[in-house]
Amino acid sequence: MSKPATIRNSIRKLTKLYNIAVSKELSELGFTMPQMMVIKEIIQERKTIGQISKALDLSYSTVSGIIDRLERGGFVARVKDQQDRRVIWIERTCKLEENSDRLNVYQETFYAEMLSGVTEEEIDSFIRTLQILINHMEKKAEEKS
After folding, report:
1. Where are the alpha helices (H) located in the chain, listed in sequence order?
2. 77 Cβ partners below 8 Å, 6+ apart?
3. What is the pTM of this model?
4. Apex 138 CA angle, 135 and 142, nearest 5
């Protein structure tokens, strides 16, 4: 197998393993990956479904369905805008705030646990290598634009 194909396969495998670990963590909390992506979007500030849809590159109807399930669970609320009644904001609820410490999938502690047992030198090497790959891919993407 060529070196580029080995890199491609390694990235795919790493992504798959990461997604399995995240999905397992989320399922223990009763969330799906798409629900967590929406929560991540609104945890800091309220947003409209359109804003969330655009940020996640998902259709409006898909995001609306995810929000329906989160709303039934009491984690988010739809709130009408005071100035423009056509605008509906998606906001986190007290229940989500109370449980936010359990939602560590996007926090540093989750990654620290995932990398426990790896030496600092190895982590530094991973970071340098990934940054080289990212920089190269960004240049290639710019050339294609």
Report:
1. 3-29, 33-42, 49-56, 60-72, 94-99, 108-114, 120-144
2. 71, 90, 91, 93
3. 0.69
4. 140
Q: Of 112, 105, 49, 58, give the one whose Cα is nearest residue 76.
A: 49
In the sheet that holds 76-80, the strands lie side by side as: 47-48, 88-92, 76-80
Spatial distance between the Cα atoms of 62 and 70, rounded to a whole number of angstroms: 13
CA–CA gap between residue 141 and residue 137 (Å, rounded) = 6
**Structural domains of the chain, with CATH:** 3-100 (1.10.10.10)
Q: Three-state SS across 99-110? A: HHHHCHHHCHHH
Contact yes or no for 50/81 (Cβ under 8 A) = no
CA distance linking residue 54 with residue 60, whole number of Å:
8
Nearest to residue 35, comparing CAs of 99, 123, 113? 99
pLDDT by residue, tens only, the chain of 145 residues: 899 899 999 999 999 998 888 888 888 888 888 998 999 899 889 999 999 999 999 999 999 999 999 999 999 999 999 999 899 999 999 998 887 777 765 667 778 888 999 999 999 999 999 999 999 999 999 887 7
